[in-house]
Write a structure and sequence with these properties.
There is one protein chain. The chain is mostly helical and about 80 residues long. About 40% of the residues lie in helices and about 0% in strands. It contains 3 helices and no strands. The radius of gyration is 12 Å and the shape is globular.
Length: about 80
């Protein structure tokens, strides 16, 4: 397996499961899921989650926000 294209099952910031292809592509470019990138990295001017210091308060906040979003759409 190529480590360069490896995508984990869960986001390293919010620790919730990757939801779709948008999360996968965002992980490959920014190192986190789409919701973490748009909700935390972009507003704070951070381009890559690996530049982010390990802060449990931020991680808990991101995880709680992500848990409130539906992971599927009923039709």
């Amino acid at each position: 397996m190529d480590r360069e294209n490896f995508v984990p099952f869960e986001c390293p910031l919010c620790l919730t499961l990757m939801r779709d292809a948008k999360d996968v592509f965002t992980f490959l470019s920014s190192g986190c899921c789409y919701e973490c990138k748009e909700g935390y990295l972009v507003p704070h001017g951070i381009k890559d989650s690996r530049e982010l210091s390990e802060d449990n308060e931020v991680k808990n906040s991101l995880r709680n926000k992500r848990k409130q979003l539906p992971s599927y759409i009923l039709r």
